[in-house]
Structures are given as structure tokens and as C-alpha cells.
Amino acid sequence: MWKTIRITVLLVVLVIVAGRTWLDRVETQSWKRPLWVGIYPLNADGSPSAQSYIADLSAADFASIATFFEREAHRFAVALDEPVHIELYPQGKELPPQLDSNTGPFGVMWWSLKMRWFAMQATKVPGRTPSRIRIFVLYHDPSWQQSVPDSHGLQKGLIGVVHAFAARSMAGSNNIVIAHELMHTLGATDKYKLSTGEPLYPAGFAEPDRRPLYPQPSAEIMAGRRALSATDFDMPSSLKDVVVGPATASEIRWTHH
Ligand SMILES: [Zn+2]
After folding, report:
1. CB 164, CB 177: distance < 8 Å
2. CA of 88 to the centre of ligand 1 (A)
3. Which residues lie closer than 8 Å to 232 by C-beta, 6 or more apart?
């Protein structure tokens, strides 16, 4: 009897989570209304320079992300004026749970549950409507470390964790990373080789039919880099030099399969 009740409760919870995930997907891929995306800045290393950088942030610093989505959506004949609306929220105090790079599948599952719980708590801002998609941007002082941990975007939970550099000169590339992780929350997959970072052909190329093929004029958002030759790739410094390729457009339902 008791066992039956426990199993029933567990099944109900699982059905609710699955239903919620399905609704999230339908809603975020319908492109009928602007999608509200919240930027939640955090001081990753507790440095004074990251702190003053965050204090100076304004919504205008993230405007290029909305412009990018608008320009690219229109190229794929999505009629919506403002496909993505970006809101800047006040700085949070707590950092999201960390994911170790060598974690197994069970650990990743557990981490994503902790992430959902964290996001629920961290986005409660008095007087502000919570956003549909939550992007936590963790700022690091570039003089303290040369590289930052990997960023993540979760479609299940609609959460992004972006590690960024607290430097004006990096604002453009930070916005590329934010747009990339945002794309993951919408269902887009990576289009680069994990071992080397090279863009995969053809899906990771902005213009796969271009002759000559190299150099590519821009990067595909889910590849992140543009191919200059068969062996050289570089990372653009702003979203002006990034496009959404047909494979990504199909994954996020800008085009229909
Ligand atoms: Zn990615």
C-alpha cells in the first residue's frame, strides 16, 4: 500500500516535469511572441574589478544580442519584430552549482536538478517579472586568469550559465557566448569538433556553398569560429560577424523540418 503511494507520487512528479519540459519547448519554439530573456550578472571571483564592471553594466551592453536574433530571424522569414527581448536584472549574490568537467551522466543529471532549484531562487527579484529564460553571467577579472570555465545552456530548465571576462574589450565576444548558450536553451546543438574547436562542415559554416570555400566571411553561432582555411579558425569579436545557419534555424524551428 505504502509502496504504491510512493510510486504513484513519483510518477506524478515525473509526468509534471515532462509536461513542463514539453510546454517550455513548444512555447520557446513558437516564435509568436517575444521571448523574455533575463541576464543575471554575478561576480565569479569576488574581484573588485569584476564588481565595478558589473556596477557599470546597462541593458544597452546586451542590445547586440537582441539585434542579432532579429536580423537572423528575419533572414529566415520569421515575421516577429522582436523575437528575443533582453532584460538586465540586478546582480545576484550566490553563484550557481558547479559542474566538474569529468562528471558522469548521473552527476550531470543531479547538477541540472540543482541548477533548476538555484535558478528558481536566484531569479526572485522584488518588483520584477521573472524572465522565461534565465542566463547567469559570471564575470571574471581577466588579469586573474587567462581562461574561464566552460559555459552551458540547458534546454530542460531554460537556463544558461555563461563565464565571461569583466573587460570592455571582451563585451562583444561575451555576447557571442551568451547568444550561443541562449541558442542551446532553444534546442540548438553544437556544430564544432569538441577536441579541436574547428567548425564542422557543412552545418558549422556560415556559407557552406561559397566558392572558394575559404576564408569564410562569418561564423555560424553554434560553431563559434569561422574557418579561414582548412586548418585555421578564428573567433569573431562581435555578433556582427556571426550568422545562424540553416541547421540551427531548423533546430530552433525558424524553418520547418
Ligand atoms: Zn555549445
Report:
1. yes
2. 22
3. none
> How many other β-carbons are positioned within 10 Å of the β-carbon of residue 189?
12
pLDDT digits (tens, 9 = 90+) for 173-190: 999 999 999 999 999 999
Indicate the pairing of strand 35-43 with strand 133-140.
parallel
Query: How far apart are the CA of 188 and the centre of ligand 1, in A?
Result: 8
Residue 191 Cα, ligand 1 centroid: separation in angstroms? 8
Q: What is the pLDDT of residues 9-64, one digit of tens each?
A: 888 888 887 888 888 988 888 999 999 999 999 999 999 999 999 999 999 999 99
**88: phi then psi, degrees, rounded to nearest 5:** -100, 125
161 C-alpha to center of ligand 1: Å? Answer: 11
**How far, in Å, from the CA of 5 to the mean position of ligand 1?**
41
Amino acid, res. 234: D
Q: How far is the CA of 251 from the centre of ligand 1 (A)?
A: 14
